[in-house]
Amino acid sequence: MPRVTYKVVISGLVQGVSFRASMRDSALRHGVRGWVRNREDGAVEAILQGEEAQVATLLEWAREGPQGAKVASVEKRELQDFPQQAGFRVLVKG
Fold first, then answer.
1. For site-directed labelling of 54, which of 7, 13, 24, 26 has its Cα 20 to 30 A away?
2. Which tens digits make up the pLDDT trace of 7-55?
3. Helix 52-62 × helix 19-30 angle, to 10°
4. Domain holding 46: CATH number?
5. For residue 94, pLDDT beyond 70
């Protein structure tokens, strides 16, 4: 299975609704590595790395997010030659 790395920006009501912690939990369940953090503009940004099918499953989850979130858009950009990530972390500061 091909491995991919995406930079993802999720916009809408995505801060203050446990989006980052929920994304970490979902990523760990699906074997996706990387990180997630809040951005100053109110969006959530993440690096998602893993097998294409696993990352696709997490991207599907991100379109809905946790209870209380109202996702307006999910933008993704594939990254080439990005360093391999270990685990999945919630970053506190951008």
1. 13
2. 999 999 999 999 999 999 999 999 999 999 999 999 999 999 999 999 9
3. 150
4. 3.30.70.100
5. no
DSSP label at residue 73: E
Indicate which residue of 20, 39, 63, 89 is catalytic: 20
Residue 91 lies in a domain: no
Number of folded domains that form the chain? 1
Provide the mean pLDDT of the chain: 95
Claim: this prediction has a pTM higher than 0.85: yes
38, 39, 63, 77: the catalytic one is 38
**Residue-number span of the structural domain to which 60 is assigned:** 3-82
Is 38 known to be catalytic?
yes
Rounded Cα–Cα distance for residues 86 and 64 (Å):
25
